[in-house]
Amino acid sequence: MKTTVLKIVISVIVVLTTAILVHFLSISNQASSDGTLRIVIVDENGETVFDDDVIFKENDTFFDVLNREFELTCASSSYQPDSTCSNDFQSFSYTGKILLGIAHDDFDVQTDWAHSFLALEIYNGIDYVLTTQGVNNIEFHDQDQIRISFRSVLEGLD
Amino acid sequence: MSQKHQAIKDAALIAVLASILFVQQIALSFLPNIQFTTLLVVLYSRIIGFKKTMLIVIIHVFAINILSPFGPVIPMQIPAMLIGWLLIPILLHTVFRKFSSAWTLAIFGFFFGFVYGWMFIPVSIWILEIPFLTYLYADVLFELIMAVSNFLTILWLYEPLKKILIEQKARYYMTISEPRN
User: Fold this and answer.
1) The complex's ipTM?
2) What is the pTM of this model?
3) The domain made up of B3-172 is a member of CATH 1.10.1760.20
């Protein structure tokens, strides 16, 4: 009896602690003030097709910033291209939107998720490093540089 | 029971237990890192022995990568996956051979959740060229989920499943004496 009670208590503590940790580790990152971001976009040929500053506002997510400046294509629930970007993945591991394509007046970079994807990288002062979050949850600050580049899924394995 | 008869029974047992491992992992694939795989491999290691569990794990890893409707992991990650799962029977028959209660095995399962995630680090940083800290940070949430899943499933289900498996194993290997003419 005592063992069962102890098991229940320990299990509840473990689940609650995990829930708290998951909440803090997966917190949504929104801009705390207005500012500017430098966005670099690289196409499938490795050419930089966009390199300019864009403005963000308080409470913007990175997706909001891109959605204001570019024409975006996101993944539908079945990972098909969706230009309305209306689908939000709600699973704990895939919260938010998945960016498949980004276009502007003079460029159009599209991926298909199965063979290619858009890599999101942030400049750390020395080099670009992959972000640890998706397009909705990237942490960013004023004057940050973020690069969005076309990548083959098999890159590095060829 | 003759040696040949014993070998056939062993082969059938390995196939059945590998199937259970495979089916539960596929059935729970929609939940990231929540599965009964660690519980079952721990259970098999303790009840049916080292060699059979090693074979079950090898079959499981290949079956998952060949037959899973969600597709295989990339080929370079298969050795990491295989070594990761093989660590359970290896560790439970060497360093942690005295671990036998649900509590100690649950704690073992908790830490194994992190170790399993770390097995994929070499491939990720050297072949896929993902920065070490980026990978570690991105994966820690999934490692934590696996650790907690392992801890809770072993803590609650190890003893009842152990009892069932021991009973079934005894019945399965029970020799039926043939009538003499």
Assistant:
1) 0.80
2) 0.74
3) yes
